[in-house]
Design brief:
The complex is a heterotrimer.
Chain A: E1 2-5, H1 9-19, E2 21-28, E3 31-36, E4 62-71, E5 74-79, E6 87-92, H2 94-107, H3 114-122, E7 123-128, E8 153-157, E9 161-166, H4 169-177, E10 183-184, H5 188-205, H6 221-225, H7 229-233, H8 242-246, E11 253-259, E12 265-271, E13 281-282, E14 285-286, H9 291-309, H10 321-325, H11 332-339
Parallel strand pairs in A: 2-6, 6-7, 7-8
Antiparallel strand pairs in A: 1-9, 1-10, 2-3, 4-5, 4-12, 8-9, 11-12, 13-14
Chain B: E1 12-17, H1 21-30, E2 39-44, H2 52-60, E3 65-70, H3 81-98, E4 106-110, H4 116-133
Parallel strand pairs in B: 1-2, 1-3, 3-4
Helix pairs in contact in B: 1-4
Chain C: H1 2-13, E1 19-24, E2 33-37, H2 59-63, E3 70-74, H3 76-87, E4 96-101, H4 109-114, E5 120-126, E6 129-134, E7 137-142, H5 143-146, H6 149-152, E8 164-166, H7 185-191, H8 195-206, H9 214-218, H10 244-257, H11 267-271, H12 279-293, H13 319-324
Parallel strand pairs in C: 1-3, 3-4, 4-8
Antiparallel strand pairs in C: 1-2, 5-6, 6-7
Classes of the chains: A alpha+beta, B alpha/beta, C alpha/beta.
């Protein structure tokens, strides 16, 4: 266990950012979002949840895949360079760390997504325990422990210090690189344990911590799919993509072309939302014709289809971003309660 | 040896209505009145055919200035089209200014079919103004730039 | 609130209406959701409190396609949106039964959280103070700090259209008193900045846009069946802000398309997950329309012509912007 005094964090970050890209939760216009940190930016480790998750660091909202250009009657294709610079993402919460596992199973299984893989290989994740979980949090239902967030390095932020515990090889390497700021501590374990007990105590008491997920099993797929409750639940849905884009586990994307005139054509991919009317648009038409079907897809995917294909791992991590951001106050918790028979 | 041309050559898009301003441009040409070749004319059926997206698109694709020309108020081929265009463009230009885009980059001018001289002087003035303002960087799309 | 439920039950029972459109209790006290109630017993979950900020008028486009009349609860400012929709033939008044509900301001959970209050369970507005009942004990906040932006420039407590009023007096005093400020103050402040700073301001704000389309989808004035930003027929269908230009384009066009039709209901800013002050774009258009073409409040009536579908021979020339600066 290591320790850094809180007032030396900026120095630590400065030193890290000299050799690697450093992504931190940055405070801008009263909002906190992950971004590339430079000493001019204000980092914010107190806000529990960034608006968007740290997903962008590995799977950005939009990225160019390749460019085509026509010159002298010949077409040249210029593929986008894969990520080749090491980077650190600092301060990811337990839920967001778990979400990376969800993404890994999609992008790193065959066929492997080379863009994602390159970023995962070059990225080191420093997680941070949740000092004060909020009422929108429900990670406990997915067996996530916000007091032991995992990843390459785990950290705990207390009143005056940051406790630092490397867990993997990458984590050890980062620890070695930041050695001059980290002091070994003996009594750190005790402080961290106290903090962990406190966090777990709060989590038990959170209003959304005890959901019944028992019905969301593969054998109930058809029953859940055909439930008349969807028809009731979807109605307030505005068909915007807020829930999808703030979600740390949503991984659908669209591939589009941008015609840049004489600069050729850029093929890029960008996040897509199953809430959008053109999500399943194909040459023959669209097989999801109503918002109810789109709404159902999102939750069936998270709670039934994904676990069925991934050893029971739900593709929701209970971060609660959709709970606080949905314009119509719909969210996965309401769906779990209603379909799970609680409400 | 290659000589690099560093002189700024603005790209100007001029939307001209078919009935007055386009004919005005024609007249300017046939009367041998000069206006810079930097002006690219796009013919539209009426000034009110131009929706705000056209203007933004022009900037995106590399224009440094956009000018809309139509019949004089009262002379619209479709009676009232240019009155609507007038309101729309006033609001759009004001919005662009509000977003911090230089307000000289956009302009509306009424040019009749008989006003070859006005067309040429307007274009000369406008190009001079864009020269003064320099490259458009506030409404640019980097993907379309070299 | 009980009065609203009782009246809704009566209207359902006597067949005046086939369904009720209102707000339903959420799990957390601050997250009521817009909901339909088809049966009297479902109304047990009905709620009306200061967190019911959602403007229900846009749902009436969908409700209008259903059999029978829909009972809807509208706050004073929501009725403007309803009128505007009637004017644009998007909803039919005779398929709607409106109960105007009194409103003393609606709260922004995001702003409350920003003051450091967590675990909100309930809130009561008392004059210029808000009493908050939270999981961590009772708290208090100044109303001006936690009200939704739209309420700080309240249009007044008059319902411009309704079949009956509950909890509101006709002709009640406008605005929450001293809270009401000049609604163009923020716009003017921006206008008075040098262009570079204005540019930097919007750049910073718009760069946070995640293109979730919530502002568009919630907007009662945005009622196109297929938006130009969604249609595969146009290359504006880019789906992501792949370049800063896309951010500017989306937000200029979104605001422009509702210019003259926007009632300033503030839903766009309420729902923005990144808290971008989108209403400042709409309000700029409203301010310009007021100065150039005379004061106009969209939704105040159902007959008048909108400023962009109308003109006078003497209208100002667009050149006025370059001459005097759009600033003033």
């Amino acid at each position: 266990m290591y320790r850094v005094k809180k007032d030396r964090l900026t120095e630590l970050f400065t030193s890290v950012s000299k050799v690697q890209d450093l992504f931190l939760p940055l405070r801008k216009c009263d909002q906190t979002n992950y971004g590339l940190w430079t000493p001019e930016e204000t980092f914010d480790l107190d806000t529990l949840k960034t608006v968007k998750s740290a997903k962008d660091c590995f799977f950005p909202q939009s990225e160019v895949l390749y460019r085509c250009r026509k010159e002298d009657g010949k077409i040249s294709i210029d593929p986008q360079q894969l990520c080749d610079r090491p980077f650190v993402v600092f301060g990811m919460r337990a839920c967001d760390v778990k979400a990376v596992e969800v993404l890994d199973r999609v992008f790193l299984s065959d066929p492997v997504d080379s863009f994602y893989k390159a970023r995962r290989e070059h990225g080191t994740i420093v997680s941070m325990a949740c000092h004060e979980p909020e009422e929108t949090c429900f990670c406990r239902n997915f067996e996530i422990d916000p007091a032991a967030p995992g990843a390459d390095v785990e950290t705990w932020l207390t009143e005056d210090s940051l406790y630092w515990k490397p867990l993997t090889e990458k984590g050890e390497a980062l620890t070695a690189a930041a050695e001059e700021f980290l002091e070994k501590t003996e009594d750190g374990d005790k402080t961290v344990e106290e903090e962990q007990t406190a966090i777990r105590g709060i989590v038990e008491k959170l209003p959304l911590s005890h959901l019944d997920l028992s019905r969301f099993k593969q054998e109930n797929t058809m029953e859940l799919f055909d439930s008349p409750l969807w028809e009731e639940m979807y109605k307030p849905c505005l068909a915007c993509g807020t829930c999808t884009f703030v979600c740390p586990t949503c991984q659908c994307y669209d591939i589009r072309d941008f015609d840049a005139g004489k600069n050729g054509v850029q093929r890029y991919r960008c996040w897509d939302s199953c809430m959008y009317s053109d999500f399943t648009m194909m040459a023959h038409g669209n097989m999801r014709t109503s918002q109810m079907q789109r709404f159902r897809q999102r939750f069936m995917h998270k709670l039934v289809y994904y676990p069925a294909n991934n050893d029971g791992l739900y593709s929701c991590v209970g971060c609660g971003r959709c709970v606080s951001k949905c314009p119509a106050s719909l969210n996965i918790v309401k769906v779990i309660k209603k379909l799970g028979g609680e409400a | 040896m290659q000589v690099e041309n560093t002189e700024f050559r603005p790209k100007i898009v001029a939307f001209c209505c078919n009935w007055c301003s386009y004919a005005g441009a024609d007249l300017a040409g046939s009367s041998r009145l000069a206006y810079p070749a930097d002006v690219k004319i796009i013919r539209v059926p009426c000034s009110c055919r131009v929706n705000p997206m056209f203007i933004l698109r022009a900037f995106q694709r590399g224009a440094d200035g956009v000018i809309l020309c139509g019949c004089h108020p009262g002379d619209c081929h479709y009676t009232t089209g240019n009155y609507y265009a007038r309101r729309r463009m006033t609001l759009l230009f004001s919005m662009l200014d509000y977003l911090g885009v230089e307000k000289g980059r956009t302009r509306v001018e009424w040019v009749s079919a008989a006003e070859g001289v006005k067309f040429s002087t307007t274009m000369n003035e406008f190009v001079a103004k864009i020269h003064e303002l320099g490259k458009n960087v506030r409404l640019e799309d980097l993907r379309c730039k070299n | 609130m009980q009065e609203l439920i009782t009246r809704a039950k009566e209207l359902l029972a006597d067949g005046t209406v086939s369904r009720v459109l209102g707000w339903k209790k959420g799990d957390l006290g601050w997250d009521p959701e817009p909901a339909y109630f088809d049966k009297a017993e479902e109304l047990e979950n009905f709620i009306y409190n200061p967190f019911c900020g959602a403007n229900l008028s846009k749902y009436l486009i969908a409700a209008g396609k259903l059999e029978g009349t829909t009972l809807v609860f509208l706050k004073p400012c929501d009725t403007y949106s309803f009128n505007q929709l009637v004017k644009e033939h998007r909803v039919k008044k005779d398929k709607t039964y409106i109960i105007g509900v009194g409103c003393h301001g609606t709260l922004d959970p995001e702003k409350i959280r920003n003051t450091g209050v967590k675990g909100i369970a309930d809130a009561v507005l008392e004059g210029d103070r808000v009493r908050l009942n939270t999981l961590y004990g009772d708290k208090e906040a100044a109303a001006a700090e936690v009200l939704l932006d739209r309420c700080l420039v309240c249009k007044g407590k008059t319902h411009v259209v309704c079949d009956e009023l509950i909890g509101a007096e006709p002709g009640e005093e406008a605005g929450p008193g001293e809270l009401a400020v000049n609604r163009f103050a923020q716009v003017e402040e921006l206008e008075n900045l040098p262009p570079e700073e204005r540019f930097a301001f919007w750049q910073e704000q718009l760069s946070r846009c995640i293109r979730c389309n919530a502002c568009r989808n919630v907007c009662p004035a945005c009622s196109c069946l297929k938006c130009v930003f969604d249609s595969s027929q146009f290359d504006s269908n880019q789906k992501a802000n792949a370049d800063t230009f896309e951010e500017q384009m989306f937000h200029i066009i979104r605001a422009f398309h509702v210019a003259g039709r926007c009632t300033d209901c503030g839903e766009c800013s309420r729902v923005c997950p990144e808290s971008i002050p989108l209403h400042l774009l709409n309000r700029k258009f409203i301010k310009d329309i007021d100065t150039f073409y005379g004061e106009y409040q969209a939704g105040a009536d159902t007959e008048s012509k909108g400023p962009l579908t109308d003109f006078t021979f003497e209208d100002v020339e667009p050149g006025i912007i370059a001459e005097r600066g759009g600033g003033r």
